[in-house]
Amino acid sequence: MMPRDTNGEGTIFGGVILSYIDQAAYVEARRQAPYRYVTVSMKEVVFKEPVHVGDVLSLYGQTTRIGRTSMTISVKVMAERFANHPEIAQVTEAEVVMVAIGDDRQPREIEIV
Asked: For an engineered disulfide with 29, which of 34, 44, 98, 101 has Cβ 3.0 to 4.6 Å away?
């Protein structure tokens, strides 16, 4: 993580991390079926650890449910820290609901390929 994403406390803005969670959920949804997706909801995101400048974030997405037009993706965020001694900390996790949309921007049925 880079200094441009820090807040007044010197840690990374939560909104930046939320953006990465959204992107990770999209990538996982595309792995399941090759459609366009929009985010409908992100359930309770609790930040357990701060993210510092220099941390390397890894985001892990896993599909937990596929419905007719939507899918639920669980995203776990891990921070690898190098400051004093190498450490890996779970920063947060989120459940993201993505809806597949067609060219008309309306929900479309998900067909697993």
From this structure: 98
Supply the CATH number for residue 51's domain.
3.10.129.10
Sign of CA dihedral 98, 103, 105, 110: negative
Nearest to 98 by CA among 26, 44, 27: 26
Reply yes or no on whether the pLDDT at 51 is more than 90: yes
Q: What is the C-alpha to C-alpha distance for residues 51 and 105, in angstroms, rounded to an integer?
A: 35
Residue 113 in any domain: the answer is: no
Confirm whether 69 is domain-assigned. yes
Q: Tens of pLDDT along 65-84?
A: 999 999 999 999 999 998 77
Query: Hey, how many other C-beta atoms are within 10 angstroms of the C-beta on 94?
Result: 23
Whether this prediction's pTM lies above 0.70 is answered by yes
